[in-house]
Model the fold of this input.
Amino acid sequence: MRMRPSQKSGAALLRTAAILSLVAFAAGCQSRQADAPRTTGSIGATQTLEVSNLSHDQALRAVQAWGARYSNDEKDKVAALNYAAALRAAGQPSQAVAVLRKAIIFHPKDRQVLAAFGKALAENGEFQEALATVQRAQHRDNPDWRLLATEGGILDSVGQNEQARQAYRQALVLAPGEPQILNNLGMSYTLTGELDEAEKVLRQAVANPSASAKVRQNLALVLGLQGNFREAEAVAAQDLSPEEAKANIAYLRAMLAQKDTWKDIKQAG
Done:
């Protein structure tokens, strides 16, 4: 369902958040070496830093730890990937691009490095090179759902929403119910103002126990945009410490108050 005209200005405010959620999607994986820095950072099932789960302070500590290891050996793939991920989480995508551009020299055919490079390029606004890089990393005879989801995020970022959704649907065939794919699909619908569909998909995502806090935050944004403020705040605060919940709710309110006030959006809803 397309959103009502009164919702359009508010939905436009979510475009940046939606794109960031899409291109920040984790696509690579590698094994963690025994001497990896004991830092900070959210190390997920793939044993790499999960950018979307890092707080700003964690990201800064991870930059220091992984940067030191990278400085010792720029050919170290694990160090390069995690240093770049930490830089992205700290809001330094151009530096992450530089690190990974060098990593490509040492690992020109490595899917993990190519995927990470594509993500960093997208976050830096270099969408065409990002798309080409991610597609180069993909094996069409044995596709990787993470790469498909990342490709979809880049396509959404340049306005090719239907092509993006085709990529997400293909990814869901390979990884049914995967919350990170559903997150991207939900934010794709947010970009085009199809908020009912976005809410439906994001609810499916957060129902999975492995869904990240970022996915719940995105659902809260969509609920808030539709005027469901009480539920939006409850979702934003779910499973968080009081301090983290307060910060998430403040972020939610700030996003929705940039142009339309909470009162205005409530009346529009």
